[in-house]
């Protein structure tokens, strides 16, 4: 039997329902082919793919946890909170996510206006063309359009030169509050996890405050092994998990076969001394 820390769990990825390019069914097939035995689809601010993902996982005999990645504004920056094991039919979280998605269309129009000013036209329609779910038009869809237009060679270059603070196409946005996001997840019976902490540009003191506040309001986990972390960061955030008493999560953050560096289920295992987030479900 697979021991708890060597289980091939991938608890973070995206489908066409948000900003991934594969369907929930194709992701399930890919997870299976890569040996994943516990999987969660965590689309941004959206639960529309959950039933399809669960059904596909069940047909392939992969254990499944319902998931979501919620966009949150905390101390003036965007952070992401993953919810795992939620009831995807819970009206509280469904309504909260609907409100969180609401401003995306208007933001996208403003992004396109800015890009127009630097000579890039048709970005709104161009991005919308890539959005499998028009309620969830995101910077990723703009990034794909800018690559298609030859403005940048890949999406990585886009996120260096466009769509980020102080660059064309950046529009600040107010997402959900941290307290609301965690409350929705808990009310829906799930556990809340801080996604890719290594990506945030906070000071050490602000990170400390984030961990403490998140814990105070009932947050349980942080991602340690993620496609967004370097091997050094696996160590750093492993220590943070121990220091603050968080359960550790593992997920590729897979979006697309060509764009994503890390495929579903091919990350290093969680270090043995950490308690995996999936222990909360046994
Ligand atoms: P949005 O929710 O519209 O602000 O879009 C956020 C999405 O953009 C993230 O979920 C990633 O998929 C993508 N993204 C953000 N920053 C980067 C980056 N540096 N490299 C690649 N993708 C990124
Ligand atoms: Mn994304
Ligand atoms: Mn994220
Ligand atoms: Mn993600």
From TrEMBL:
Gene3D superfamilies, alphabetized: 1.10.150.650, Metal-dependent hydrolases
Entries under Pfam families matching the protein = PHP
Q: Which GO terms describe its molecular function?
A: 5'-3' DNA exonuclease activity; 5'-3' RNA exonuclease activity
Q: Which InterPro entries match?
A: 35NBP, PHP_dom, PHP_domain, Pol/His_phosphatase_N, Pol/histidinol_Pase-like
Q: Pinpoint the Polymerase/histidinol phosphatase N-terminal domain residues.
A: 9-74
Spell out the SUPFAM superfamilies in the cross-references.
PHP domain-like (SSF89550)
Show the CDD domains listed in the entry: PHP_HisPPase_AMP
| PANTHER family reported in the protein's UniProt record | EXONUCLEASE, POLYMERASE_HISTIDINOL PHOSPHATASE N-TERMINAL DOMAIN-CONTAINING PROTEIN
Q: What is this protein called?
A: Phosphatase
Q: Which organism is it from?
A: Polynucleobacter asymbioticus
């Amino acid at each position: 039997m697979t021991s708890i820390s060597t289980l091939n769990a991938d608890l973070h990825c995206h489908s066409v329902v948000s900003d991934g390019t594969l369907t929930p069914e194709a992701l399930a097939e890919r997870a299976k082919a890569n040996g994943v035995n516990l999987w969660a689809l965590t689309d941004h601010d959206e639960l529309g793919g959950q039933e399809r993902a669960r059904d596909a996982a069940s047909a392939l005999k992969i254990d499944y946890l319902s998931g979501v990645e919620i966009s949150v504004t905390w101390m003036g920056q965007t952070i992401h909170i993953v919810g795992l094991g939620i009831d995807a039919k819970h009206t509280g979280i469904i309504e909260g996510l609907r409100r969180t998605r609401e401003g995306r269309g208007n933001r996208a129009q403003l992004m396109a206006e800015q890009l127009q000013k630097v000579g890039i036209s048709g970005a709104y329609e161009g991005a919308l063309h890539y959005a499998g779910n028009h309620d969830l038009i995101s910077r990723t869809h703009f990034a794909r359009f800018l690559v298609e237009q030859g403005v940048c060679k890949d999406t990585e270059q886009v996120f260096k030169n466009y769509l980020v603070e102080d660059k064309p196409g950046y529009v600040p946005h107010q997402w959900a509050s941290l307290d609301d996001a965690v409350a929705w997840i808990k009310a829906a019976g799930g556990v809340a996890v801080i996604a890719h902490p290594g990506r945030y540009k906070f000071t050490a003191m602000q990170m400390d405050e984030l961990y403490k506040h998140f814990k105070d309001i009932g947050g349980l986990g942080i991602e340690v092994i993620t496609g967004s972390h370097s091997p050094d960061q696996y160590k750093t955030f492993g220590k943070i998990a121990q220091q603050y008493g968080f359960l550790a999560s593992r997920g590729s953050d897979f979006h697309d076969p060509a764009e994503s560096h890390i495929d579903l289920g091919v990350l290093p295992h969680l270090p043995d001394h950490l308690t995996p987030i999936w222990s909360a479900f046994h």
